Amino acid sequence: MTNESNLIIQRGKVIDGTGDKAFIGDIKIADERIKAIGNFRKDESCSLNAEGMIIAPGFIDIHNHLDQAILAFPFAENYIMQGVTTSVVGNCGLSMAPVNYENLTDLKRYLSPFLEAEYDYDWEWTTLQEYFERVREKGTSVNIAPLVGQGTLRIAVKGFKSSWPSKEEMKKMKDLLSKSLEGGAFGISTGLVYPPGSYSSTEELIELTGILKNYGGIYTTHLRSESDDLVESVEEAIRIGKENGIPIEISHHKAEGKRNWGKINKTLKLMEEARVRGIDINCDVYPYIAGQTTITALLPPWALEGGIEEMTKRLKSLDARKKIQDEIAMIEGNDWENTIQLVGWKNIVISKCPINKKYEGRSLEEILKNRGKIDSLYEEFLNWLLEIQGEAMMLEFSMDEEDVKKVISHPLSSICSDAWVTGSSGSGNPHPRAYGTFPKVIKKYAIDSKLIMLEEAIRKMTSLPASKIGLKKRGQIKEGYYADIVIFDPNIIKDKATYEKPRQYPKGIKYVIVNGNIVVRNGKLTGLKPGKILKKNI
Ligand SMILES: [Zn+2]
Known about the structure:
This protein is an alpha/beta fold. The protein starts with 5 loop residues before the first strand and ends in a 13-residue tail after the last strand. The longest helix has 16 residues, at 167-182. It has 18 helices and 21 strands. 32% of the residues lie in helices and 18% in strands. The protein has two domains: 59-289 and 399-472, Metal-dependent hydrolases (TIM Barrel, Alpha-Beta Barrel); 293-396, no CATH class. Strands 1, 2, 3, 4, 5, 18, 19, 20 and 21 form a nine-stranded mixed sheet that branches. A six-stranded parallel sheet has the order 9-10-11-12-13-17, with helices on both faces. The site of zinc ion has 5 residues, from loops.
């Protein structure tokens, strides 16, 4: 029996996470940490043979949404099996706290795309620390680094109201943010396409995020536009970083809609120039040409104001309905992200529809055209949306592979999954990125196409996100660092998850070690939960 607090990994090819060249070596682990790296005498009693394998730091997913479901899936199987040992959560404006019970219904609605009905939480927490204390008590296999969601924060203070925050409301938001940061949160995230984040002006964001500097906190942002106004949205993020002197991370960077493909060249250049001016800006990217989000993102944000009930009322009122229909039928010129025009009905595929599962796996074009006599797809879409009560997830095939490659190969980008934890069954199809992201980048973009060196791919999954987010002693194979380690076979590694059959673990991930404990042994989960809730500055 291996004593896991005292382990030697022998004869592997070490890629240490810094981008430096691989070398052959042994690694000694004791008391959760990497004790030494070198050549040690073979010790059968506590050694793990890694011959022919790569030994790398455990992967750090800088853009993840597993906080909503981790209590239901504490083993985080779909991440652990990819070699992910740390997840940065609370992204795109969405976090599980702070909670104000008066606005709890609004918060639940806001988080609903990520909350399966069966989770049935009692919501007996108000702060992020209280929520993650519950996660800690239950145990997790993966380390978790929380961010505060700006949408959640705004809901706690003013629900789904679109108005500018009053002085008093701003003070409340700042107090809640400070409290979260004092409790160990790593920064704040925004989701500026989702209400209520979309209601926030640049000035509001600059004022709120001003306090991050005192805590060394980061600003991560799902931009206001990832399509027609992509460039302006990156400029907005740069301005927020510059005015407050805070680090910026552009989340899941991409250009959506054919007419916007190629804008990535401009935005990456803007980031390079901003860095020259001393602005600490990076981005992250997932290796797929489809995104996934909630179906209501197809409507103008004003139509969602007040939550789903209000949206339903609008879809039933003749005037509002006509206005919605006119706006989504407009090819260009909306001041919001009009995905229907950007990608087209046939490139939007329903991945989850709890009210009527027969729609899952079908494109909107197919669904709407099969609904009998149709005068207008727009009208039929709104009818259908009422029928499913606005509850569905969709895949949008909106990106260009060339853009994806450009962002992946850019030195400023980290790799992220933008997905969450899920079990082997469960309703609907998750995005394949939930199961395949990290092995896919290694196999497709490093080993096969050589778009990037393997050492560089690993850096983008380890030391780069660790230093960006401010994780201490993680993200490298280095003496004194936590023993978060993945051991994989470079000849076998491959993602298997597809859009049609996403719930498939990758091949070739042999061992995964979290805080010195083996959570995957010979490609199988061990059922241990050594993950920690990480806290900034604590
Ligand atoms: Zn997002």
